[in-house]
Write a structure and sequence with these properties.
Blueprint lengths: L7 E4 L4 H14 L6 E2 L4 H8 L10 E4 L5 H9 L5 E16 L6 E2 L1 H8 L2 E3 L7 E3 L5 H4 L10 E3 L5 H15 L3 H9 L1 H8 L8 E3 L4 H10 L4 E5 H6 L4 E3 L1 E2 L6 H6 L5 E9 L9 H8 L2 H4 L4 H4 L2 E2 L3 H12 L8
Parallel strand pairs: 1-2, 1-3, 5-12, 8-9, 8-10
Antiparallel strand pairs: 3-13, 4-10, 4-11, 4-13, 4-14, 6-7
């Protein structure tokens, strides 16, 4: 197998910013070129990664969920016999408002009905209508009589992807007939569950979380969407809504009881280690305390770290390049 002069990484758009910052730091701190990181989505990443062994195929794949058995089987069928799994941390997305405003307690269903472009017809038929709701109380009579106004990231953002997938879809699939579409017509299912309204009730506020916090302070009726770490850093200015009864904390995000959270991974092709230069060193950087530790630079990007015991166990497995045996 001829060598490539840099590591090739594909996969999840949510893991992309974490992977990218490690790649940049790795490139500056070592004599190796910075890895090429592409945001292809988790499923697309595994498809490319499991395609085969050799320089035409990626060395690593980022994932915002664990690899499926069918994907592992596809890897093996294509000669990718040994895959090293790296659980890196957790991601939490919050819906917050100004600290002086009334704190909201929302269900995933409330979030979907407030923000989806099209919603199920209230007459109970299996049809859709353009979202007519303008007030939170329209969505749910127990919510305040205030205008639905949510500041959130643009479509290019991993935070937006996670929010749509976990919060919006979480509420969308509460409707049985839509949930059934996931098996029969996945594209239609996603078009209903993942498309946010564009009539002024959801406001794209760019990638700058500082700006969202400032806007929330000046408009107590507005809610903002951003990563958990940013809430943590601005606890004197903003508060998080409860979602399905759970409050976002380090603990609830790490144990999965806060619904808008998930484990994040990347996977490494063992056959490429020692052939593509720098893979072991990149792994060492990613699993160093300065990167994934409690005070590491990945927490500044919004990642919830694993506990020290998990980090030690996973770090050792990664150092020894122990392949995933089975799921």
């Amino acid at each position: 197998m001829a060598a490539r002069d840099s590591i090739s990484i594909v996969g999840s758009s949510t893991v992309f910013p974490f992977s990218k910052v490690v790649a940049e730091r790795f490139g500056k701190a070592t004599d190796y070129r910075s890895p090429t990181v592409e945001s292809t989505g988790t499923g697309g990443g595994f498809k490319a990664f499991c395609g085969g062994v050799g320089v035409a195929f990626p060395d690593m794949s980022n994932a915002s969920r664990r690899i499926k058995q069918s994907e592992l089987d596809m890897c093996k069928e294509n000669g990718v016999k040994e895959v090293v799994e790296v659980l890196i941390g957790y991601d939490g997305i919050v819906l917050a408002n100004a600290i002086e405003a009334k704190r909201l307690s929302l269900s995933a269903k409330d979030i979907f009905l407030a923000l989806a472009k099209k919603i199920p017809n209230p007459d109970g038929s299996a049809t859709l209508i353009d979202n007519p709701y303008t007030m939170w109380s329209d969505v749910n009579p127990s919510l305040p009589k205030s205008k639905i106004e949510v500041l959130g990231p643009p479509p290019t953002s991993g935070t937006r992807d996670a929010f749509v997938e976990l919060a919006m879809e979480g509420g969308c699939k509460k409707f049985g007939w839509i949930s059934d579409l996931k098996k029969s017509d996945k594209n239609k299912y996603k078009a209903i569950c993942h498309v946010i309204r564009e009539d002024g009730h959801f406001i794209e506020a760019g990638e700058n979380d500082n700006l969202i916090v400032q806007k929330l302070a000046s408009n107590p009726n507005a809610l903002g969407i951003f990563g958990f770490s940013f809430l943590d850093q601005n606890a004197d200015k903003v508060q998080a809504s409860k979602i399905d009864g759970a409050e976002p904390t380090f603990e609830t995000i790490a144990d999965g009881s806060y619904a808008v959270s998930r484990p994040l991974y990347f996977y490494v092709k063992k056959a490429h280690v020692g052939v593509i230069q720098g893979i072991e060193e990149y792994l060492a950087e990613f699993t160093s305390e300065r990167a994934w530790g409690d005070e590491g630079y990945l927490t500044e990007k919004g990642m919830i770290p694993l506990n020290a015991e998990e980090r030690a166990k996973i770090g050792k497995r990664v150092k020894n390049l122990e392949p995933l045996q089975s799921l």
